């Protein structure tokens, strides 16, 4: 058994905003630690620099030799609350130690002091990390062969304390900024989600039958695609509801009369005393029953051709020529009963993207209408052919045809031409039109060469027409 964890949009937004801020905080903290060391070195290196220069200035040469007098201020400037240890030495470049600690660490080749240039380097001395400054000063202006090398070092307690203080101050400010940023982010997300929550509340307050669209212009740009999709979905739902209500209304209206007639005819048959009268009543009842069944089937076909039902059907490449030929054969008995010449024309395969159920209804209604309205010894011809990029299905007959003034209205449901003596309910061409629209096809009416009506259905070609 699996459980789905509900996702919160607010929590997800907070995650994607605060996690990057946390990563930036960590990176900035690492940079702050590195920078604090550099700042502490810069501050305390100035003291080392001042110390070595002060001591170097007190190195003198006279007739008795080289002397150095280290002033107290040169070493007292290192005094701090951490009592860092200070190490110094002054020796000549020939190796003679004048004063200070012997065998202090020396810089590597890359940090050798040059003339009048102070070099800083780190080293271990007496088990401690020490920061040294070394400076070489020539003792004679005209002769650089003899110089005094002054070296002063200091342990790192004060530097580390200053670096920690810098880091703490920076981290404290960053934490405050993070806290304020989190507050503003939460407020911003709450305000940013307010239009979406307002839209949710409007949807929830609507009654079940309220499907009018939302005003797209009154929402933020980012929400407009969502509102447009909602409006489109509600429009489709409204169309489906309208189609269902229309079907229910049409069915109830059209079935009321034949059902009443069936009931009346059944009562007449029950009251008939003579076998001949009873037989005549049963014949009328059977005829009315067939008409009612045909009406019910057409209503069901019409409901299957509605847009909401069509969206659930599968369309696939199919040979319209082969499909129409086999369906025409099914109507051969009905044509023979009226001595009608039913013919099929079409040899080449013509592929369309079709649904067999809807195509069956389309062609069946065309053939049924043609055979029904064509008098005995007439002609009905069905033809499938490709012209340019389109596929054409035509059904022509030698019947009475349809006046030009009526050709637009005959596609309306339950519309029948005045004066028509043939039985029917006016749904055949309405079904043909709905099925054609489901295939993105166009239906047109014209005069047939046989003298009656010619119905043409123009299908767009299938991408697999040469399948």
In brief, what are we looking at here?
This protein is of the alpha+beta class. The protein has helices spanning about 10-55, 75, 155-205, 225-270, 275-305, 305-310, 320-330, 330-335, 355-375, 430-440; strands spanning about 60, 65-70, 85-90, 95-100, 120-125, 130-140, 145-155, 315-320, 340-345, 350-355, 380-385, 390-395, 440-445, 455-460.
Overview features:
single chain; 467 residues; alpha+beta; Beta-Lactamase; Helix Hairpins; Heat Shock Protein 90; 3 domains; 5-stranded antiparallel β-sheet; 5-stranded mixed β-sheet; 10 helices; 14 strands; 49% helix
Please give the CATH architecture of the largest domain. 2-Layer Sandwich
User: How many helices?
Assistant: 10
Rg is: 51 Å
The helix-strand sequence is HEEHEEEEEHHHHEHHEEHEEHEE
Q: What is the rounded distance between the termini?
A: 46 Å
Fraction of residues in β-strands: 15-25%
Whole-number mean pLDDT: 79
What gross morphology would you assign?
Answer: rod-shaped
How many strand units?
14
Low-confidence runs? none
The CATH first-level class of the largest domain comes to Alpha Beta
What's the arrangement of strands in the largest beta sheet? 4-3-7-6-5
What is the helix content?
Answer: 40-55%
Largest β sheet strand count, sense and barrel closure: 5 strands, antiparallel
Number of domains: 3
The CATH topology assignment of the largest domain is Beta-Lactamase
How would you classify the helix and strand content by structural class?
alpha+beta
